[in-house]
């Protein structure tokens, strides 16, 4: 839940940074991975033996699905789709795909209660994002497809961590370094000069929000939850992302909250609580 709250807050912070301050998406991505990569480098070195056993090919796959690849798909989607879609479609897709990935990759059969809870979550998040999802604006479908793919890759990312028995936080730390290596030349060739000319307070704020809170704190919380809860339960907690984003959008940005959105938040929270605490452990086929 802590990771999801940070991710929900990030949606508001990113909107202010991109729309209010005129930053480039690569500025946010670069700050996230360059700073977190530097902070986490000692951990990567300490856990190098486990990471060597994991192997570079698997690390690259995980980086594409849960690191810079996922974030680039998400930010590109927002060039076409409104922010309401960005706060709705991936949190819907992620838990469902996490359950599907657990079934396909780990042999987990979700209980009937968890299936029902996932359905309640889906209904709640649909209520939250109904106004945005019902738009007929042109080209929105392009962004929606990319947001769907971002949710799919995130759901499978958690299951692959478990299947490959990767040390979750050490792997996420190595992913930050790989992501930094990938994004650095792209950032230098686009918006780096403009960002470095901005006021120091803005650079420090973006660096703290992206590199420390999003890149280190939230990932430590989420990867630890994967180890404790498993991918299916951990993925359900992403439902708190649109709820947090909705509340902060109203209080920080002054955006109105309608009755459908309030109802959706209530349903989403009830579904999350049911999926995590009331539906038991997924059954493993052949176990």
Characterize the structure shown.
By secondary structure, the protein is mainly alpha-helical. It has one domain. Helix content is 80%, strand content 1%. It has 16 helices and two strands. Strands 1-2 form a two-stranded antiparallel sheet. Helix 1 packs antiparallel against helix 13 (200-229), helix 2 crosses helix 13 (200-229) and helix 5 (68-77) runs antiparallel to helix 10 (140-163). The longest helix is centred in the C-terminal third of the chain and has 30 residues, at 200-229. It is globular. The two termini are 30 Å apart. The model has no long low-confidence stretch (mean pLDDT 83).
Strand percentage, roughly? Answer: under 5%
| Helicity level | over 70%
Adjacency order of strands in the biggest sheet: 1-2
By secondary-structure content and strand pairing, the structural class works out as mainly alpha
Number of strands: 2
Oligomer state equals single chain
What is the CA–CA distance across the termini? 30 Å
The largest sheet, given as strand count, sense and whether it forms a barrel, is: 2 strands, antiparallel
Shape: globular
Number of domains: 1
